[in-house]
Amino acid sequence: MDAHNRELALQTGLLMLLTTTVIIGGASLVFSVTPSLPQPQALAVLPDSSLVILLCGLGLSSVMANLPKWRRASSVCLALLAFYTLVHNVIDAGTGHSWLTGQPRLPSQAVPTLILAAFCLWVGPQGQWQHRVWQFGGGFLWLIGTITLAYHAGAKLPSWLPRASALLPGLLCFSFGLAMVMVSRRVPRLTSSLSKSAVTAGIIGVSLSMSGWFLISWNQHETTRLEAQHSLESVTTSIERTLNSRAIVLERLAERWQEVFEDEESRQREVARYWSDYPSILALAYFNPITRDTWRRAQQGQDLLWLDDQLVSLPVLRWLNQQQQSTQWLLPDPSRPELALLALKPSNAQRYQLVAVINLARLVTSEASIAEQAFSVAY
After folding, report:
1. Which of 133, 154, 157, 288 is the most exposed place for a label (fewest CB within 10 A)?
2. In terms of C-beta density within 10 A (0-12 exposed, 13-18 middle, 19 or more buried), how is residue 298 classed?
3. Boundaries of domain holding 13
């Protein structure tokens, strides 16, 4: 009676594992190749990994259902995927997207594991030496799953240790390894202790449970995505408001310089207050071709040198000479993406032009009034 109960428990556990694996592999593959569908974090695995999970689940299911043709078909598919991964990584230097799915592909380190799994499915678990092969393959998969789980738990492990591409494949490797070791000792047939109706009921029950788990994960994913979107929109609005405010402040400054403060000392005193109130303004250049008034100042010498380099470059000169709007922005230096040029030019008969160097990173982190958000934003 105890032996019968153990056999029943083993068959039930393997049935749940195989059904879960097939559903996870198929669902992950569908979501990976369909960009319009939002993918929950719980199913965030590489598309090629999803295909491997699906084939392994189908292969082990064929073993339990005593379907050797389907078992060997799964083995051939795994071997072809391993060969394709190796060839593609060699041709494309180990990086890039898969020709099969258009998404990031498996690394070359996964090829030995795929070949081992394909070989185990091809020879089957029954035989004098086959069961030892399955024990070795199951132990190897269990070890990879253990390393992956330890890595995601925060353990500091050497980078050369093999591990799965994500937490979910690592958990399945751990479970599959144990299942292969148990199957190598004795192959449990689904219909020996479980009737067809019991097997069908088990598959339906696991499918419904997985569907409920997926719906909960998807709903949580959608809620998180909407909160992140709202946070980003709030931050964007705040930054845009701050940029417009700086443009208005500098425009009024240029108007005062044209009408009142034409001497250098008065401008220097006023600019010193601007350096204190608005530290993101690094440098200023004022041009008035009618009065031949040219004036340049910066908080530090290196900022003035950077401004001078930009004012003599052809793209910036073309951008200034072709200014149509009263306010325009430019990011002229790819090596300094945090520095922007702000050009102000009135739309009336006045011909002055004010160019300011704005440190966007400093403006966003120190001067923008950004409310506390549920997500942190990296600039």
Report:
1. 154
2. buried
3. 2-194
